[in-house]
Design goal:
CATH architecture of the largest domain: Alpha-Beta Complex
Radius of gyration: 23 Å
CATH superfamily of the largest domain: 2-enoyl-CoA Hydratase, Chain A, domain 1
Helix content: 10-25%
CATH topology of the largest domain: 2-enoyl-CoA Hydratase, Chain A, domain 1
Strand order of the largest sheet: 9-8-7-6-5-26
Strand content: 25-35%
């Protein structure tokens, strides 16, 4: 069965037979024998040493840090279905006066952690009774990081775990949590702040889970929890008459391009209506094939302009990837877009997932082996801006103080934005610093935890629509 999975991983990425070579950089990959004993499994064939993803490069920079096989369907459940199966909290280590401490940076409502009241700004001081929770990198699963392995397994992999927290009021509590499946709301907070004596919309958005469900032809068939949550937030902003908007994407690793488009239409000015939002770029074979089928490769704005904003600010960081970056990049040709925080992760490319099934020759039974996420396309905005493989640099830098709750006036990012709205500059005055003192606890970056989360830009519609196109023969 593994040999079959290796074959289909090679077939869908590099073959030019019934299915055109789907891998974006197929012309940079030499001839590969998928059955070579140098590849222990399909994962090593795709992304291991001398595997398919190891070859694409630009000016010495390795381009494909992203392609992978999902053997459990977890990514589809999360991005398409809006479902997770875990404790419901995300954690990170932080710098605490020269040492490291462990913090909850957010939790999902209706998850085990959310139901227990656990949220941003809760410090974790014990995991399963052990106080050894300081960061001892370099990374998960390499046998050299005992504390790191124990913490990550407890939070993300084990069916249950017990944690001792220090709550924001500095009281301790010990809580046992059991992993469970739940539908999550990626809008962690939506509120209206007052800055420069005017209302400013503020939304914390964790994941670009899809706003739509689709039929077998790739056409929209309904809305999702994510769409309902976004609509509610923007209705609040519209009712408040906001002229400036802050979208907090500091932990957002991306997701569905359809959600990026939906957000952009809500944010963009009315003057963008009917104009190009972004365009896809495929490899030569797919570009020629789409042209032969008269399939357009650009997406336009449709009915934008509900808010009529003066500025949109995005709070970003090294875990801001793909669909998050797409959202910001799409708006730049049409309005004043400002980024605050730290340089983004850098992923201007995306996936059209390919499910791999293997048929048993004896029984004829079909078994789902994996979903293939190999880079299929790149995007550029209407000004042909893209290629941000090394990330997008913010207009103003700011640290992420993890012991502050969302929308706290002491948040370094919000102070910078407030300054800009007052005097047109992100610079911080000494008077404002003394009035809004910072803590000494800011997120260690990059955090190894986030390398275990999905970072990607996915187009499920094109996967479905490709099935309706004629075969070459």
């Amino acid at each position: 069965m593994e040999d079959s999975l290796k074959f289909y991983t090679w077939y869908y990425t590099l073959s030019d037979s019934d299915n055109l070579a789907q891998y974006y950089w197929n012309d940079q990959v030499p001839a590969i024998n998928p059955f070579s004993t140098s590849f222990a499994n399909a994962d090593s064939l795709l992304s291991g040493q001398n595997g398919i993803a190891s070859y694409p490069a630009l000016n010495g920079l390795k381009l494909d840090r992203y392609s992978f096989l999902d053997r459990t369907g977890a990514v589809s459940d999360q991005i398409e279905g809006g479902k997770l199966g875990n404790l419901g909290m995300e954690i990170s280590w932080a710098n605490d006066n020269g040492t490291t401490s462990l913090w909850v940076i957010y939790s999902y409502a209706k998850s085990p952690a959310g139901d227990a009241g656990i949220g941003r700004g809760w410090q974790i001081i014990k995991v399963n009774g052990s106080s050894d929770v300081t960061f001892d990198g370099p990374g998960y699963g390499d046998g050299s990081s005992t504390n790191l392995n124990n913490v990550i397994d407890a939070v993300y992999n084990d069916p249950s775990a017990t944690f001792t927290f220090v709550r924001p009021d500095l009281t301790d509590t010990t809580i046992s949590l059991n992993s469970a499946e739940y539908t999550f709301n990626p809008v962690l907070l939506d509120t209206v702040l007052t800055m420069n004596s005017t209302p400013v919309g503020y939304m914390v958005f964790s994941t670009f889970s899809d706003v739509y469900t689709y039929n077998s032809n790739g056409d929209v068939s309904g809305g999702t929890v994510t769409k309902t949550a976004i609509d509610a937030a923007f209705q609040k902003f519209t009712s408040a008459g906001v002229k400036d908007l802050i979208v907090d994407l500091r932990y957002n690793g991306g997701g569905a391009v359809s959600t990026a488009e939906y957000l952009d239409n809500l944010i963009a000015p009315a003057s963008a209506n009917g104009k190009e939002m972004y365009q896809y770029m495929f490899n030569k074979e797919w570009t020629n094939y789409y042209a032969s089928q008269q399939v357009g490769l650009s997406v336009d704005f449709t009915n934008p302009g509900g808010l009529s904003l003066d500025h949109v600010f995005f709070i970003v960081g090294p875990d801001t990837y793909s669909a998050s970056e797409l959202t910001m990049n799409n708006l730049k040709p049409y309005m004043d877009v400002k980024l605050v925080g730290a340089t983004t992760g850098g992923k201007p490319v995306g996936f059209i997932p390919q499910s791999i099934y293997v048929v048993n020759d004896t029984t004829g039974a079909s078994t789902h082996m994996a979903d293939l996420y190999a880079i299929n396309f790149e995007t550029e905005n209407a000004l042909q801006q893209g290629g941000y493989f090394q990330g997008i640099t913010p207009d103003a830098t700011a640290d992420d103080y993890v012991d502050y709750p969302w929308a706290d006036a002491r948040d370094h990012n919000l102070i910078a934005i407030d300054n800009f709205l007052i005097n047109g500059s992100f610079s911080r005055s000494e008077a404002r610093l003394s009035n809004q003192p910072y803590s000494n606890i800011f997120r260690t970056s990059p955090s190894p935890v986030f390398k275990r989360r999905f970072h990607g830009m996915v187009d499920y519609r094109l996967n479905l629509k490709r099935r309706t196109l004629p075969k070459l023969h």
